[in-house]
Amino acid sequence: MPTVFIKTFGCQMNERDSEAVAAQLVAKGYVLAPSELVADVVLVNTCSVRDLAEQKALAKMANIVGVARKNGRAPLLGFMGCMAQSRGRQLVETLPDVDLVLGTQKFHRAAGYIDDLLAGRRDQVVDTDEEPGSQSAIREHLLAGNSGKAVTAFVSIMQGCNQHCTFCIVPSTRGAERSRTLDDIVSECRELVGRGVREVTLLGQIVTSFGKREIPVKDGKSAFVQLVEAVHAIDGLERVRFTAPHPKGYGDDLVEAYGRLPKLVECAHLPVQSGSDRMLKLMHRGYSRERYLGIIEKLRRVQPGMGLTTDIIVGFPGETEADFEDTLSLAREVGFDQAFVFKYSQRKDTPAAAMPDQLPEELIEERHARLFEMINRIAAAKYEALVGRTVEILVEGPSRKNAGRFQGRTRSNKLVLFSGSERHRGRLMDLRIERTGSFTLYGDPAVVGMDDATESAVTTEPGLA
Asked: What pLDDT was estimated at residue 144?
């Protein structure tokens, strides 16, 4: 059977989309290849949030083409995802060796198109059209890991974005917000748990906008909180996460849910983008610095140990030194556990691209380095403070970088490595933290008197906003 390799750039939504396409192909008999060098089909799932992401995807495909020619091979080549959506036919004009360009509402068509291309029924496919109902068209999951088992899974609950931040191309590449039904999502989560999954992460461009127009508020709870409650009620599920929300979606009902629903882990990725009210207004974010800090205060009141991460953009058009200092001061005040710091990148057809006072690259680089260093220093202190303490992790499987260790994540989403074995996969375990690395903790299960009889053992089968 043909072999396939998928290279993914970008966010967790893209990872989920790649998993779904892989699952389609495996179900049809395709075999996953270890690398693009030996695959019959090579797909590059792309990101358009920043120009650098697009350039990486283009360079990757050009390299694949060059190596294949050198080795006398002619694999079927395809672009998928956000860059495929925004550039469309331009991609095959730039790289004629590319056979398939698949937009963000067409992932469920991948297997059929690839079958046709390999069989010679089509010479080339470029499909970036909108397709109603596409948000519910893919439910397949490739449960990866040792012996095909996975403990965690992404579940896409909606597609698209209506926010229209002035820097962001996502509404153009992903389209308007479209939510799946609550029952369909819960059914998928229940199926995953039946196959051994113990943690689900609910995904959406702005996940807290789920069902806003379709599902009425009930007992003071938004549609998204109603969904979290329904997923929380699934027997056998240990943890619920979600990403990426928008600060505007953090109403009191969601804040309160963190204290009421024990499976909803105390972890929040809350993109702020800037600490300056002037910048937030130019970005069309829809909240103020004070409103953002108020959400953080409420979350920590409900869960003092809340893990907080964020996205920040430096170098937005017109950003002054005073604006940047506002961002630095907000980051110090919040004390994020981690932050994804992005250098502003002009994206075509976005309002910010046409704004005056575009900053020089060297200034953006300098501010990025200053903020990045401060964020890392704050985070390092938070990680170091956990040394000697006992934390609960859900064991996911072998470390991706060191097969001799196993890994899991704390409820606040910190990665922990320890000396373990396959019998630990899928278990909730207590570990005492012995030391730290770069955004990594190292734990020892022996020092907490681990007792297999009392551990919660289970049989397992596995933005920007």
From this structure: 46
Whether 337 contacts 379, CB under 8 Å = yes
Q: Are 443 and 416 in contact (CB under 8 A)?
A: yes
pLDDT along the chain (465 residues), means of 10: 94 88 91 95 93 92 95 96 94 95 94 95 94 75 54 93 94 92 96 95 95 96 98 98 95 97 97 98 98 98 96 98 98 97 93 97 98 96 96 94 91 96 94 94 72 31 38
Question: What does the angle CA 119 – CA 121 – CA 127 come to, to the nearest 5 degrees?
Answer: 110
Alpha-carbon span 416 to 397, nearest angstrom: 11
Token pair recorded at residue 128: 């970036």
The pair of structure tokens assigned to 215 is 């599902």
What pLDDT score does 401 carry? 85
On whether the CB atoms of residues 39 and 75 are closer than 8 A, the answer is yes
HSE-up (13 A, CA, CB side) for residue 335? 10
Q: What is the largest CA-CA distance in the chain?
A: 65
